[in-house]
Specification:
single chain, alpha+beta, four-stranded antiparallel β-sheet, three-stranded antiparallel β-sheet, 13 strands, 25% strand, elongated
Length: 319
């Protein structure tokens, strides 16, 4: 075979290979769950490629880096694989603000928000995220009381860790977004400490129960006293109104009697005396007496009152 023919075949083979590279590296597909960034001679472009079929310049001019859009979970303080949990107690051991030791682990939900920054702003972004999580959690736990970390303050601690971690990630410019932070377990380091803390917690709950019972009794007593006060006040107002009305009636009666007294003073005086005697001595017998020297004459009123109806009956029976 001649040398010219060999060169011709070699050139043809090279052209076929080059054409194959151009055809197979000029087209690429991005799935719905992915996002991509184009590298031109190793330099990343700012544009994020969305899902679909796309064209680019062939390798080695341009290459494609695909990253997932999914939400990732960072497990801090433990590692779970195939249903087996492995704890990293050295990472979870930390000191609270009131100088108590606790073990705390959590899960961080995060996603890639900027593929270019995620690929090139840090050599190992996941490790940096783990270290930032550790720093944020230790900072928050270190300024919190043990009661808050073990009981009702977990939600507040989670919020503070999320804010602190998001601030660090923004400072490092990793192209990562923090979605959520969830404390998994916060516990004391050994059984004796846990038992002592449980006893303290039980005593505190008993104290709160007694305080609530005392407040309930106080509120009941206050309500009863308020009710009695309102009843007495209402009765006093009623008595006041009744006395005012009675006084007004007495004044009106007095004015009426006074008008009669000005017209017939003697008759009115005698009538008032008799009416007063009837009220003061309702069952007394009344006599009209006249003393003439040694002999006292009196006229009994009630026997006369008893005889008046008989006379009327006899008079009515006469034809």
């Amino acid at each position: 075979m001649s040398l010219k023919r060999i060169y011709t075949l070699a050139g043809f083979a090279a052209a076929v290979i080059l054409l194959g590279i151009v055809l197979f590296t000029s087209w690429y597909t991005v799935d719905e769950s992915d996002q991509a960034v184009i590298l031109t001679f190793g330099k990343a472009e700012d544009t994020i490629v969305e899902p679909g079929l796309h064209f680019k310049m062939p390798w080695p001019v341009q290459t494609v880096e695909k990253l997932s859009k999914e939400t990732f979970s960072l497990q801090f303080g433990y590692e779970e694989k195939d249903g087996v949990v492995k704890e990293h107690r050295n990472d979870t051991k930390m000191i609270t603000g009131d100088e108590n030791i606790v073990l705390a682990d959590l899960v961080v939900q995060w996603k890639i928000s900027n593929p270019k920054k995620y690929l090139f702003n840090s050599d190992k972004p996941k490790e940096l995220l783990y270290d930032s999580t550790s720093a944020s959690l230790r900072s928050v736990i270190g300024s919190s009381k043990i009661d808050d970390a073990l009981t009702s303050g977990k939600a507040e601690i989670e919020g503070k860790v999320r804010d602190s971690l998001a601030s660090l990630i923004k400072k490092y410019d990793l192209g990562i977004s923090i979605l959520a932070v969830k404390l998994q377990d916060v516990e004391l380091p050994n059984q004796e400490v846990r038992k002592a803390f449980t006893n303290v917690t039980d005593a505190r709950e008993t104290m709160n129960t007694k305080i609530n019972e005392a407040k309930k009794y106080r509120n009941k007593a206050i309500n009863e006293a308020q009710g009695e006060k309102d009843a007495i006040k209402s009765k006093a107002i009623g008595d006041k109104t009744a006395r005012i009305q009675t006084a007004r009636g007495d004044v009106a009666l007095f004015n009426k009697l006074f008008e009669q007294y000005k017209t017939n003073p003697e008759i009115t005086k005698e009538r008032l005396i008799i009416e007063t005697l009837e009220k003061v001595l309702p069952n007394a017998e009344i006599y009209i007496m006249n003393d003439e020297g040694s002999t006292m004459k009196y006229l009994p009123i009630k026997p006369i009152e008893k005889e008046v109806p008989k006379v009327s009956e006899e008079g009515s029976g006469t034809p």
